[in-house]
Amino acid sequence: MQITVHGTPTELSGRELFLGKEAPAARITKLDNTKNVIGMIAPDIQLLIAIPSLKTEVCSLGAKKFNEMVKGIKKLTTIMVTTDDLEFVKGYQASESIDSAELVIDEERQFAKKYGVLISEGKLKDRLARAVFVIDREGQIAYKEIVPEVVDEVNYDACIEAITKLASEKKKGHTHENWMSV
């Protein structure tokens, strides 16, 4: 896949993901320097936000905007993934009061490769493209947006609409009532 960076065509590396398909598991680093896995099946809906760099105005604005927009949405886990250095991200979280989302680091670029958002050339090489992925409780990709121009913002309204729709649906899969009717 290709995006543009300030108008310059730029290739993305990694696997292309499709709606309705299983979200891959990716190892990330939490701010306490422990490793964790995101993606796959989880008890809550997951909103995974790929952020090129919190050091830029658009990325910082986007992180703060999502932090406010997801407040109060129940059964949602919001994870903001960046490749910025650990100390900077810790300071950013504290200074900007990011409290509705977890900020994590994609040190090994596992998330970037598995979600197809690794910028493979140019001045943002090895950074993440700006993107969002909504993963339902069954571990399926329910919504995705990879922003065509890295300096543009995501479609916040469409993303939140997808989350709201998922949150109002009953969980699929095995339920006691279904088991009893067999």
Walk me through this protein's architecture.
Strand 5, helix 1 and strand 6 form a beta-alpha-beta unit. The protein contains 5 helices and 10 strands. It has a single domain (2-171), classed as Glutaredoxin, CATH 3.40.30.10. 26% of the residues lie in helices and 27% in strands. The longest helix has 13 residues, at 57-69. Residues 174-182 have low confidence and may be disordered.
How is the topology of this model organized?
Blueprint: E1 2-5, E2 8-13, E3 26-29, E4 35-38, E5 45-51, H1 57-69, E6 76-82, H2 86-96, E7 102-105, H3 110-114, E8 118-119, E9 131-135, E10 141-146, H4 156-168, H5 176-180
Parallel strand pairs: 5-6, 6-7
Antiparallel strand pairs: 1-2, 2-8, 3-4, 5-9, 9-10
Helix-strand makeup class: alpha+beta
H-E order: EEEEEHEHEHEEEHH
CATH architecture: 3-Layer(aba) Sandwich
Strand elements, count: 10
Q: How many angstroms separate the termini?
A: 45 Å
Shape: globular
Q: Give the class-level CATH name.
A: Alpha Beta
Radius of gyration, Cα only, in angstroms? 16 Å
**What summary fits the major beta sheet?**
5 strands, mixed
How many independent structural domains? 1
Note poorly predicted spans.
Answer: 174-182
Proportion of residues in extended strands: 25-35%
Strand order of the largest sheet: 7-6-5-9-10
Mean pLDDT equals 91
The percent range for helix content is 25-40%
Q: How many helices?
A: 5
CATH fold name:
Glutaredoxin
In the CATH hierarchy, what is the superfamily? Glutaredoxin
